[in-house]
Each structure stands twice: as structure tokens, then as C-alpha cells.
Amino acid sequence: MAYFFTILISIIYMAPHLNQFNFKPKSYVNFTINKENYETNNYLLYKAIVTGNKKQLEKKTIKNFKQYGLLHLLTPSGLHLSSIVFVLKFSGILEFITLIFLFFYFFSHNQYFSLERVILFRIIFKLFHKKIEKYFDHKLLACFLITITLYCIIGRQSLSPLSLVYSFSFWCTIILFHERKIPLICYLNLTLYLLSSITGDLIKPLSLVLNPFFTVLITFIFPLLIFNFLLGGINFLDSIINQILSFYLALLDTVAQFDIIPSICFSTITLLVFTFFILVNMKKTAFIWVCIFTCPSLNQAPLKSFQGKYIYNVPDNDPQSLCIQDDFYLKCKKSFSF
User: DSSP strand E in 224-290: where?
Assistant: First the structure.
């Protein structure tokens, strides 16, 4: 039930902070790679993956990443840190000094809050994991809770509350199910749907399969991307990376083009009840619940979102979007200004 309460806390904390979603100005690390060595789309994707700056990415690319739940790949976080730590693995002292430096750098610049939390977690784990395991059976979960608590005590959560929600929910899901790969994939996808039910984002059902697949592809090449970036770009590596990113984008575009299954967004309450039934091992009841309390709904009038923007249940310009409505909540929403 730890997962259920994690999601419940995330949703309760998330709802009143939706008006802060994507509105705070951001600063990014300077991207020094030579643009002339890349095709435009590949260069912009490389830039987004390394720095988190998605402003110039094509709308089609953003849409594909969003509908398959892949936007986490464009947010500096644990994947970035693991690549740096891997390079420094030969020296524990050098790794620790680097972690301390990075934490205070990002702390003072207010740039990458998700990465800041991961660094803090890594520092706490390296310093106290032996002492923590004497008192707690699950040292990863204990370090995670200490990290989040300390992060809130020092007041960092107020700078980007929604970033904290996403980190808290997905990170906790990974820790709770990391030893069981298939349940981990399923619960990560369920977490994606639950949070999307609040923001109104439309998610493709095939994200259950495609999300881990495309995530693994980026994970394999990520150390190469970071290594080349830190060196300022080597022509030989630039050529290889350009080809890899071309293949990646082409594959994602092809999948999106032939994926005829409609995008969907369930209601928060429906998914919470569904999650509860699943966790108490009432799987049949869970799926019956979803079938009974959801039904297609078309041509709904525009509503006001939490952000105060106009949203529509069924976008006229996207025939693949399927709106599902139950008695509790209008679920499928799409913002014109996102």
C-alpha cells in the first residue's frame, strides 16, 4: 500500500500547484557542441537531452515524447548523474567531492531541481547507508525519505513544486518495485496515467511497451552524449551521435505514425480506485470498475483548466484522441497553450 499512499500524497500536493506548471523562467547550462556537425533536429534533441532546454524542439518531437511518457529523458536527473558517477567510479573521494560541488553549484544557480535532489540523495546514501541499514530494512527507501524531508526543510520545494511531485512519485515507484522488472514497468506506466489525469495530458496506451524501450535506447548512449559534451564535441563522436539520434527520431516518428490506438486520459478518482483494487489483489474488480465507470464522451464544451487556460475534452484537430468521461471527472483535456 506504500505505492497507493505515495500517489495519493502526490496528487493532493499537485492539484493546488498546477498554476505553477511551466511558468517559471529557467536557465540552462551553456551547450557548446558545434551545430554544424549535426542535422538541425538531431542537434536540438542532443541539446534538450543534455541541458533540458526543449524550447526549440519541433512540436512533432515534443508531442511524440509527451504521448509516450518520454519527457523525463529531456530533464536532467538521475540519468545524467549516473553517467558522471560512472566516470568517477575509480575514486570514491573524487566522486564525493564532485557531488558536493555539483550540489552547491545547482543550489546557488536554481537551475536543475530534479538533478539537485538526486545529487542530495547520492550524498546521503554514501555518507549514511551503513548506519541506516542497521535500523531500516529498506535503506534505499529510507535514504529517499530523508532526502525529500531534508529538501523540504531547507525550503527548496517551493521553487518547483511540480518537479518535486514528479520526482517523488516516479522515484518512489522505482524504489518500491526495482527488484521486480515487469511490475516496475506497469506501475511506472500507471503513475504516468495518474499524474496525467491531473494535468490533462493525453497518453498513448502503447507507452506501456514503448516507454521502457525508448528509455533503454537513450540510457545506452547517454554516457557517450555526456562524455562528448564535456569534451566540447569531438568531430568523430559528433558524427556517430548524429547518426544515432537520426535513427532514434526516425524510429519514434515511424512508431507514432503507425500507432492507430487513440490517446487516452482517465479520471483521477477512477485510477485511484483501480490502483487500490490492484494493490489489494482484487484485479478482476479493478478492471470491472474501469469498464463500468468509463464511457466515451464526444463534443464536450470547453472547460477552464487549473491554469486558467481554455481546454477541450476532444480536440477537433486530433482524431486519434479519445475522450473518456465518468460521473466523477471529465478526464480528457487538452490545452491550446501547452
Answer: none
C-alpha cell of residue 28: 540552462
Residue 165: per-residue pLDDT: 87
> pTM for the whole thing?
0.79
Low-confidence ranges of the chain (pLDDT < 50): 22-23, 295-338
> What region does 281 belong to: left with phi over 0, alpha with psi -120 to 50, or beta?
left
- Determine the Cα–Cα distance for residues 200 and 193; give it in Å rounded to an integer: 10
Q: Quick one: CA torsion of 127, 132, 138, 139, rounded to 10 degrees?
A: 0
Query: How far from 216 is each of 7, 37, 327, CA to CA, in Å?
Result: 25, 25, 38
The contacts of residue 106 (CB under 8 Å, 6+ apart) are 112, 113, 115, 116, 119
322 to 119, 254, 274: CA distances (angstroms): 40, 21, 20
Q: 113 with 155: CB under 8 angstroms?
A: no
Cell of 57: 524542439
172, 164 Cβ separation under 8 angstroms: no
